[in-house]
Amino acid sequence: MAHMTSRxxxxxTVGFDLDMTLIDSRPGIHACYLALSERTGxxxxxxxxxxxLGPPLAEELVNWFPADQVAAMADVYREMYPTHAIAAxxxxxxxxxxxxxxxxxxGRAIVVTAKYxxxxxxxxxxxxxxxxxxxxxxxxxxxxxxxxxxxAGVYVGDHTGDVRGARSADALSVAVATGPCDAxxxxxxGADVVLADLTAFPxxxxxxxx
Length: 210
Description:
By secondary structure, the protein is of the alpha/beta class.
């Protein structure tokens, strides 16, 4: 059964995930993993790593480094990230229009992501995606912390972890099948709405608000 929530009674606030929802960061992350591999002398299968974006960085690094080195390697990766990942990343189809649709309706569009917040902000600035707020370092159910703080009634994401975050915040879960989870996985996880990509979001939002 769909997870039903009431529509926001005051300001419309819509949360968006970042990687594979608003941005296609695969080329940049791929380049950063290769650079980390070269710097540390540790093999990292970058092709594989970019097929499972979404969870926190540490959950990927533990596949390549001993557990007691993961925190230090995460710091190195984040330091290298602006050099290798920002310019190579592009906006997902419909990303600018989705943010604009929320703001044109008088609402706030916020980004809630597991990505390191300073790097998330660099991506948005580089691509000209004008979110009203950005909150990083939150994954799955913990995304509900920011969604509740900002009063988000809708959360848009590409991963089953995003669905869990929306449900934990009692927000409507709008999933886009542009990341590692296909439409059926997203529905099974409890998404209320599944869109092929963000190009369908403005029309959905108009219908939702009607």
